[in-house]
Amino acid sequence: MTHRLAGKIAVLSGGASGMGVTHTRRLIREGARVISFDLNEGAGPDLVDELGEDKLLFLRGDVRKAEDWERVVAAGRQRFGIPNVLINNAGISPLQSLEKVSEEDYRRVIDINQVGTFLGMRALVPSLREAGGGSVINIASTAALVAFADLFPYVASKWAVRGMTKAAALELARDGVRVNAICPGDTDTPMIRAIADTPSGALPPTDDLPFKRWAQPEEISAAVVFLASDESSYMSGGELVIDGAYTAQ
Ligand SMILES: NC(=O)c1ccc[n+]([C@@H]2O[C@H](COP(=O)([O-])OP(=O)(O)OC[C@H]3O[C@@H](n4cnc5c(N)ncnc54)[C@H](O)[C@@H]3O)[C@@H](O)[C@H]2O)c1
């Protein structure tokens, strides 16, 4: 069997929950080795038991801290070699409106979702270049294409992630580094369940979705594998929208 990701060494943020877990499993199943980190331990240690220390290195770390990115990259290089894939996946999506969100809470979302993505790209570029090229995958959202009420800082941060993706793609093209975004629609993870469980009306009922259901995390992981692989060799500065036709309406 040929592995689509043989020789790939991927750094993944937010790997202890939700889509980070399914991305890790799929990447490793396709032949990659993964350096994953998260603010929380979550599913991280169990995943190492399941997938093996020779395939997965899990660490604790905060995407908001440049020194954590440096530590993760150094540990990953020592264990597996020079990373050639980065997946900026960590994020938070608190229900907060323009009028009610405090400045502190607004900045927290921007710090994690937007500044964290910037710090991740900045920390990995030297490795991606040294590896002779690579792929950066920024997890944005349909909230980077349209807006949702009562997710004000989240929408702001995800539109920024989409813009940063395009700007980085132009800057890094000459180094053979591709940069793309994935825009998932509602996907069945703890994040969306927390919003769905709040009687805010921020989420459309699943019956109003064209597919009448949320995405499963594995349906997003399939796009991560494609963008991490050489199959997407001419794709850069773009986004894969995986939303069951939600933004086609
Ligand atoms: N679930 C959805 O419907 C949906 C839709 C579109 C986009 N997304 C995006 O997908 C990504 C993954 O979300 P998910 O649904 O799997 O959510 P999740 O809450 O299950 O997982 C997010 C992970 O990020 C980690 N994290 C949060 N802050 C961090 C920090 N400062 N440093 C390191 N790790 C941190 C959390 O601990 C958690 O493990 C996010 O960027 C999210 O915005 C999710």
UniProtKB/TrEMBL annotation:
Entries under InterPro entries matching the protein: NAD(P)-bd_dom_sf, Sc_DH/Rdtase_CS, SDR_fam
Example of a GO MF term: oxidoreductase activity
Swiss-Prot/TrEMBL keywords: Oxidoreductase
Keyword flag Ribosomal protein: no
Keyword Oxidoreductase: yes
One protein family per Pfam: adh_short_C2
Family the entry assigns: Belongs to the short-chain dehydrogenases/reductases (SDR) family.
Name of this chain's protein: 3alpha(Or 20beta)-hydroxysteroid dehydrogenase
Organism: Arthrobacter cupressi
Organism classification: Bacteria, Bacillati, Actinomycetota, Actinomycetes, Micrococcales
